Amino acid sequence: MTYETILTEVHGEGERGRVGLITLNRPKALNAINRQLTEEVLAAAQAFDADPSIGAIVITGSEKAFAAGADIKEMQPQGYIDMYLADWFGAWERLPAVRKPVIAAVAGFALGGGCELAMMADFIIAADTAKFGQPEIKLGVIPGMGGSQRLTRLIGRAKAMELVLTGRFIDAQEAERAGLVARVVPAAELLDDALKTAKTIAFHSLPVTLIAKEAVNRASETTLEEGLRFERRVFHSLFALEDQKEGMTAFIEKRAPAFKDR
Ligand code: HXC
After folding, report:
1. Catalytic site residue from 61, 69, 108, 113
2. Which residue puts its alpha carbon closest to atom 7 of ligand 1?
3. Average pLDDT along the chain
4. How many angstroms separate the alpha carbon of residue 241 from the centre of ligand 1?
5. Distances (CA, A) of 126 to 81, 98, 117, 175, 245
6. For residues 9 and 19, is the Cβ–Cβ distance under 8 A?
7. Strands (E), 25-158
8. Which of 19, 44, 150, 185 has its Cβ near the most Cβ atoms within 10 Å?
9. Which residue has the CA at smallest separation from atom 18 of ligand 1?
10. Catalytic residue among 32, 116, 121, 172
């Protein structure tokens, strides 16, 4: 498929450790998220998810903007019935459904839908230039791609409420302190760092990685008791895999494991 609003690349040679990179590419609109970009990001992420040679996915933007929000010019003329019948932003449910790990590498503005897209990733690595915010209130609307829900779960009610009600931006350091981002790195190192992190993940056993992602996600979906029971049961199931034998044998034999995704 040829894309017009994103760029896609595969990083890594050899059979393991390959990473799919998606770069948002609407520079004149600061990567504002319109319908075409939505469909293209989702198609690319699903294609990488289905490609057995890929172990992890990175989504990034430009130096100036990860994404400055949903496309305000596209939304401005819409009425309620247009938004409702199109189930505007509903398609984004397909991104968290991607089973492989997704890292958002964020430099510059990640505002509104841009911040929400970053939060759909499994974790965010931020450049020291990153700025996050949910400024929808200033446009007479509220977050519509998960901002009121994911931000609140990630950083807590008090800070999420303040950001959603004021539209204030926070810098990368404040985002890290709040628990929104996993790590802050110098802007010049952002992409290399994110790709290196993704490659580390992609070298591990794919089924174990998928199960680890599912287990961590379960923590925000269920009670502690149910979550602990789920973890223990899937932990037991890993002992059916050749990769468990290989990982533990390699440790005992003091060598690197050669995982086979089996
Ligand atoms: C459409 C956008 C855009 C957006 C920027 N642009 N953000 N177009 N949708 N979200 C366009 C501008 O119109 C301009 O195009 C070009 O990108 C460059 O932007 P500038 O404003 O000139 O750049 P700068 O002065 O550097 O300011 C950067 C900025 C500002 C602070 C990020 O662009 C800004 O405030 N953008 C909107 C941020 C926002 O409110 N996001 C939330 C959107 S709503 P032209 O053609 O004029 O050069 C949302 C929630 C969805 O995401 C859910 C609710 C429905």
Report:
1. 113
2. 68
3. 97
4. 49
5. 37, 21, 14, 9, 36
6. no
7. 56-60, 65-67, 102-106, 109-111, 123-127, 131-133
8. 19
9. 29
10. 116
Residue 192: what pLDDT? 98
**Residue 141 Cβ contacting ligand 1 at under 6 Å:** yes
Q: Given the residues 32, 44, 65, 70, select the one marked as catalytic.
A: 70
> Rounded to an integer, what distance in angstroms lies between the CA atom of residue 61 and that of residue 63?
7
The ipTM of this complex is 0.96
Q: Are 65 and 106 in contact (CB under 8 A)?
A: no
pLDDT digits (tens, 9 = 90+) for 178-221: 999 999 999 999 999 999 999 999 999 999 999 999 999 999 99
Give the list of residues 6+ apart from residue 136 with CB closer than 8 angstroms, or none: 69, 112, 142, 143, 144, 147, 164, 167
The yes-or-no verdict on residue 155 having pLDDT over 90 is: yes
Residue written as tokens 């520079």?
27
User: Tell me, what's the pLDDT at 5?
Assistant: 98
**CB of 139 closer than 6 angstroms to any ligand 1 atom:** yes
Q: Is 136 in the pocket of ligand 1 (CB under 6 A)?
A: yes
Is residue 32 within 6 Å of ligand 1 at its C-beta?
yes
The confidence score (pLDDT) of residue 50 equals 97
Give the length of the chain: 262
Q: What is the mean pLDDT of residues 226-247?
A: 98
pLDDT at 43: 98
Is the pLDDT at 1 greater than 90, yes or no?
no
- Does 116 contact ligand 1 (Cβ within 6 A)? no
Average pLDDT over residues 165-172: 98
Count of CA atoms in the C-beta half-sphere (13 A) of 186: 2
Q: Please state the pTM of the whole predicted model.
A: 0.97
**Catalytic annotation present for 156:** no
- Of 152, 4, 33, give the one whose Cα is nearest residue 95: 33
